[in-house]
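Module 6 notes. Inverse folding takes a fixed backbone as the condition and produces residue identities as the prediction. Think of it as a translation problem where the source language is geometry and the target language is the twenty amino acids. Below is one complete input and output pair. Work through it position by position during the lab.
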């Protein structure tokens, strides 16, 4: 760390250090440049470390925790709040695709900024943006850069439509219209990833990931691009996996042993892969994913909203599958609030057994939202913990508000009671993103002023595509 790097000592906080296995304990943290350079615990360490800092932030009475990582998120959905969300995934997807085709560069920019505002206020410092509208990739990336957030950007590729893989019987005129949607070609997919990777390589907060929409939505030619770039460029990859029952059933019909075994045979499972949902994973498939070090990103709110089901979280924990948490799209999962998602993850496995030993512990859930997410976005060694050498993505919670007051703050207490109202300050990559109730990196008010108009424009422009969605939806509904 250069001696001239800006430095701040966050003094008198209580530190949530899961790696140390302890409950929040008094201490201070020195941040120099983009990193945590010292964690001071004893009185003497605190005095000495404080004397090294140019600036002191007095966090007396507050909890300092690692920033939360939203490991499955689609930024464009923030403009689609209140659109169709009373359908299962397959017909629902027709609507979100219809709206998505009406987006332009400015809508994408505002969607990214709006999502960043919501996430920062919820203590989320990093997200994995699984991004379908690849022609607007640069607009999205510029907005992510301006947002101040840490971002793993995973542009989609796909060339097999759901109606093909799921063998949905469609009237020819509907099929013909659905078939006009763009498909990625292997050549363009490879060029896109290589270009984006070379342009954003070395950026302090933005990384490029491979983002195949789903294994079953890619032809062998696209799978070859995925495998080659994961190998040649060492890129991390992120994809959807067995989100709905019909996907799992069709996967077993298409490949011996099902989708996960086929992915293993195709050489796509590795520590650098994270998969969203996994609602219909069998215990054996969980074991295969664990063996390859694949991270499963649990999205309980989205899975409930679309009626997809529940990840067998206790089984995944039992098999030591690496796990993370995500909020998915605004128009499927609702709020970009990982405190809410943590609570759901904590509670949802409980009705499966009355044996409380099988229930996830609060500590495990908070690990999913921090170190687990860091691993999913490719920052396993440098993010998610309050330790020297880690990137300074930090959240200060004030436990004196109504939601948290009334008991000493433990990890269980945090997971059960914390929320956006307790988020007092947020630091990302060593820079304050939120302080005193204000986002400091970008003009949040200007974003909020503009989103209503652009969202109305998108909804109006989606009109003709929505007619197609409505016509086709009953056929997709029937496939479930
Ligand atoms: Zn998704």
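Target side of the pair, the amino acids:
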């Amino acid at each position: 760390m250069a001696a001239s790097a800006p430095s701040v000592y966050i003094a008198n906080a209580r530190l949530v250090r899961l790696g140390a296995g302890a409950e929040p304990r008094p201490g201070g943290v020195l941040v120099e440049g983009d990193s945590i350079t010292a964690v001071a615990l004893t009185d003497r360490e605190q005095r000495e470390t404080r004397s090294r800092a140019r600036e002191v932030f007095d966090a007396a009475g507050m909890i300092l925790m690692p920033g939360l990582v939203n490991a499955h998120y689609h930024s464009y959905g923030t403009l689609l709040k209140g659109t169709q969300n009373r359908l299962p995934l397959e017909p629902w997807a027709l609507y979100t695709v219809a709206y998505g085709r009406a987006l332009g560069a400015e809508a994408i920019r505002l969607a990214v900024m709006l999502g960043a505002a919501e996430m920062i206020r919820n203590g989320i410092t990093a997200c994995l943006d699984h991004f379908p509208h690849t022609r607007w990739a640069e607009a999205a990336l510029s907005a992510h850069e301006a947002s101040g957030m840490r971002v793993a950007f995973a542009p989609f590729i796909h060339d097999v439509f759901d109606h093909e893989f799921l063998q949905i019987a469609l009237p020819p005129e509907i099929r013909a219209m659905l078939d006009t949607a763009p498909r990625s070609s292997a050549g363009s997919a490879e060029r896109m990833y290589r270009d984006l990777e070379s342009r954003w390589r070395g950026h302090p907060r933005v990384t490029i990931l491979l983002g195949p929409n789903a294994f079953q939505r890619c032809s062998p030619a696209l799978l070859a691009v995925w495998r080659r770039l994961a190998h040649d460029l060492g890129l991390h990859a992120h994809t959807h996996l067995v989100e709905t029952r019909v996907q799992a059933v069709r996967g077993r019909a298409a490949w011996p042993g099902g989708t996960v075994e086929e992915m293993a045979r195709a050489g796509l499972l590795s520590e650098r892969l994270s998969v969203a949902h996994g609602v219909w994973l069998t215990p054996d498939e969980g074991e295969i994913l664990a063996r390859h070090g694949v991270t499963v990103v649990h999205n309980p709110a989205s899975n409930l909203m679309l009626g997809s089901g529940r990840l067998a979280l206790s089984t995944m924990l039992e098999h030591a599958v690496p796990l993370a948490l995500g909020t998915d799209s605004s128009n499927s999962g609702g709020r970009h609030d990982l405190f809410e998602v943590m609570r759901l993850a904590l509670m949802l496995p409980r009705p499966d057994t009355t044996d409380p030993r099988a229930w996830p512990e609060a500590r495990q859930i908070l690990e999913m939202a921090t170190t687990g997410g860091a691993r999913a976005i490719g920052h396993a060694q440098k993010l998610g913990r309050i330790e020297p050498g880690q990137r300074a993505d930090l959240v200060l919670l004030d436990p004196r508000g109504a939601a948290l007051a009334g008991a000493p703050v433990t990890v269980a207490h945090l997971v059960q009671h914390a929320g956006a109202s307790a988020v007092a300050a947020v630091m990302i990559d060593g820079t304050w993103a939120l302080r005193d109730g204000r986002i400091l990196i970008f003009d949040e008010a200007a974003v909020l002023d503009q989103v209503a108009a652009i969202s109305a424009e998108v909804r109006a422009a989606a009109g003709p595509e929505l007619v197609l969605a409505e016509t086709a939806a009953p056929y997709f509904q029937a496939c479930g």
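Reference fact for the lab report: The CA atoms of residues 128 and 152 lie 5 Å apart.
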